[in-house]
TrEMBL record:
Pfam families for this protein: Cytochrom_C
Domain Cytochrome c positions: 24-111
Annotated keywords: Electron transport, Heme, Iron, Metal-binding, Signal, Transport
N-terminal signal peptide: 1-22
Stated name of the protein: C-type cytochrome
InterPro entries in alphabetical order: Cyt_c-like_dom (IPR009056), Cyt_c-like_dom_sf (IPR036909), Cytochrome_c_Oxidase_Subunit (IPR050597)
Gene Ontology molecular function, alphabetical: electron transfer activity; heme binding; metal ion binding
Taxon lineage: Bacteria, Pseudomonadati, Pseudomonadota, Alphaproteobacteria, Hyphomicrobiales
Amino acid sequence: MTNSSLALAFAICSGLSTSALADGDPANGKKLAQGSMCARCHGVDGNARSTSLHVVPLLAGQPAAYLIQEMKNYAEGTRVDSSKNGQMAKELRLLGEAEYADIAAYYESQKRY
């Protein structure tokens, strides 16, 4: 592979990995996440601390595209909601695609502890 081919491949991959983040507004996502139930379980920055009795996934640093898809899955009922009283699905049904993108962009931008 030539140097120009490598550079092109790198540019394409780099663009793909950040495209979901570019679609959402991390600043608005932070407001949404902290103003809703998200932060109660997942932590203010997405670095939740699980216990042996309460397992909570880390959201910090997860790819935005993955987070958006999982939020949709919870809201649509295609992913089992094991949160207390099904609160996760209830909260996500109140939000739309733009809010999912913003929240996902915020959590993607956070560093894991």
